[in-house]
Amino acid sequence: MDKGGNVFKYLFIVFLIALASITLYVLSKNDTVEEALEDLDQTSTASNIQKDLRFAIAEFDTINPIISNNRNVHELSKIIFEPLVTLSPSYEIVYDLATGVTKEISEERGVVYTVSLRKDVNWSNGTPFTSEDVKYTIDQIKSGEFRSIYQENLKSVISLNLIDDHTIEIFLSENDPFFEYKLTFPIMSSAYYGESSFTDEEKNLAPVSTGKFKINELVNNQIKLTYNDYYYDKSKEPMVEEVIITKYGTMGEVYNAFKSGDIDFLNIKVNNAEDYIGTIGYTRIEYKSRNFDYMAINTQNELLASPNVRKAISYLIDKNNMISVLGAGYVVSNFPLDYGSWLYTRDLNVETNLDYASQLLLEDGWELKNNIWQKKFGYKTQRLELTILVNNNDELRVRAAENIAEQCTNFGIKVNVQQANADYYNNLLNQRRYDLAIVGIQSGFTPDLRTFFGDNNLAGFENEEAKNIVNNASDTTDKKELAESYNRLFDIYLEEVPYIGLYRETDLIVSTQSLVGTIMPNSYDLYQNIELWYRQ
Asked: pLDDT averaged over the chain?
């Protein structure tokens, strides 16, 4: 017998068993082989990895996000500066520089929020982060010396009290619902700015920070960021050594730089992106913006007072048909929170059902005669004729209104479109002199729905249960309880139909195919998990 051959066979069998064991282990740690490979890709140390990321800012003003009016600055500031609280991918509160926020309401002290701060945070120059930095930042924002996008967040703040280096009290003039969500403004260093204000141009060249990256160097038209060695969470040390932000004069220059391969990542607000950057050679990721358009229904109107009529309208509208006339960059939207909020716990889409819409009207005493629905009110026969009010300055909403009017008229509800200039349009809305109206808002980061269901809401909708839910929501600390109460609100919304959600604008991220990483943008943060990004 060939002993050498047996040894070889034995070793080969051992090798196969070991290989199978390793494979089983990998698969046990990952749902799929693809996920396992993806994990390896994220931690690759291959020699072809480029140790920098390249971003852009058009029409740069200042890197100080408190006073900047530049969208790119606000987006990029989240990897440099940090807030007290941040928001998760599902827009849920996550503590950042704060470790906790408590609320107190009493006759003696009024409305007070006590914010506890992290004790392990240093600025990128090594100086400690304290409550004085929070006070200085809030005082600057409220000073009125400049216009900040964060002034609205703090409009109810009347005074501050430093308890110690890591505790601050914020006193409000009134109960400000979901105030915790408004603590998302970046905190700046009081020691760095000293006696100067945020308008000090020299100080604003390269302010210190507490985020993953710090401003390391200013070279001509570039801001170079490197890892902040003082960053408190060492588990999030980035894979790249440098982030290069190039300043461009116009967005046209930015588009050209992206096409040339000089920029890795770009947020595009225009719907016809292909006209600017072409159609190939990059990765596209669309995400829902907070720009939400809906149809308000005047529930105080005699013809629309019945939920059955409002509900019938919701079932006859084909929203996909409506979207088709709007062009690219829009998706069907059914509720103010459906941009990704954790409280939007179920799909509120209403499938088009003309038979059910007819049944609802028949149950309400309406009859379809001569292709129009009509009903007797006392001795008078009333045709179901309505008008959609729309701002004539908004071409998109006009197109949506015309499409809805056509769908309703084909069903037998005669609908006309009333186009009004902005001032007259707003007056008619405020006085509730309309039947239906196309309205647009930018949904807030907070899940506050008082605008839709609270006192003096646009639809004149009166429902005590719904009002109590939205009025009490901000005082609920139990997340499960809050989700359950909002779920009940969804039931009321679908049954009573004071509004019909129409569509939401989408934004677009484009990245070069050489950019590796899990890119999952939302309207709050485009750069989530940036520590895992790299180029190859």
From this structure: 91
User: Per-residue pLDDT tens for 392-433?
Assistant: 999 999 999 999 999 999 999 999 999 999 999 999 999 999
Give the separation between CA 80 and CA 57, rounded to whole angstroms.
Answer: 15
The CATH number of residue 165's host domain is 3.40.190.10
* Shared-domain flag, residues 225 and 293: no
Q: Are 473 and 177 in contact (CB under 8 A)?
A: yes
Determine the structural domain holding residue 330 and report its residue range: 288-506
Given a contact cutoff of 8 angstroms between Cβ atoms, the answer to whether 76 and 62 are in contact is: no
Residue with tokens 């959600």: 501
Quickly count: other Cβ atoms within 10 Å of residue 392's Cβ: 15
d(CA 507, CA 291): 10
Residues 6+ apart with CB under 8 A from 350: 314, 315, 334, 494
Q: And the tokens for 299? A: 């529930």
User: Given this model, what pLDDT does residue 33 score?
Assistant: 29
* Burial degree of 200 (CB within 10 A; 0-12, 13-18, 19+): middle
| AA letter at 202 | E
Burial-class residue 352 by CB neighbours within 10 Å (0-12, 13-18, 19+): middle
In sequence order, which ranges of 412-500 are alpha helices (DSSP H)?
422-430, 450-453, 464-472, 479-496
User: Do residues 484 and 522 both lie within one domain?
Assistant: no
508-529 per-position pLDDT tens digit: 999 999 999 999 999 999 999 9
Tokens in use for 109?
A: 């002290």
Task: Kindly state whether residues 31 and 56 are assigned to the same domain.
Answer: no
The three-state secondary structure class of 97 is: coil
Q: Which of 154, 116, 136, 156 lies closest to 200, judged by CA?
A: 136
Q: Are residue 73 and residue 30 in the same domain, yes or no?
A: no
CA-CA-CA-CA torsion sign (363, 369, 372, 374): negative
Residue with tokens 């990895």: 49
Give the chain's residues under pLDDT 70: 1-47
Quick one: which H or E segment has residue 442? strand 436-442
- What lies within 8 Å, CB to CB, of 415 at 6+ separation is 385, 386, 387, 388, 404, 405, 408, 409, 436
Same domain, 142 and 253: yes
Residues 29 and 93 in one domain: no
Check which CATH number belongs to the domain holding 462 and give it: 3.10.105.10
Determine the 3-state secondary structure of 483 from DSSP.
helix
Does residue 337 sit in the same domain as residue 255? Answer: no
Tell me, yes or no, whether 9 and 139 share the same domain. no
Enter the pTM of the model. Answer: 0.87
> Phi, psi (5° rounding) for residue 49?
-70, 130
Q: What is the 3-state secondary structure (H, E, C) of 189-210?
A: CHHHHCCCCCCCCCHHHCCCCC
How many domains does the chain contain in total?
Answer: 3
The whole-angstrom separation of Cα 488 and Cα 345 is 11
> What local confidence, expressed as pLDDT, does residue 47 receive?
59
Distance CA 339, CA 323 (A): 17
pLDDT digit string (tens) for 64-79? 999 999 999 999 999 9
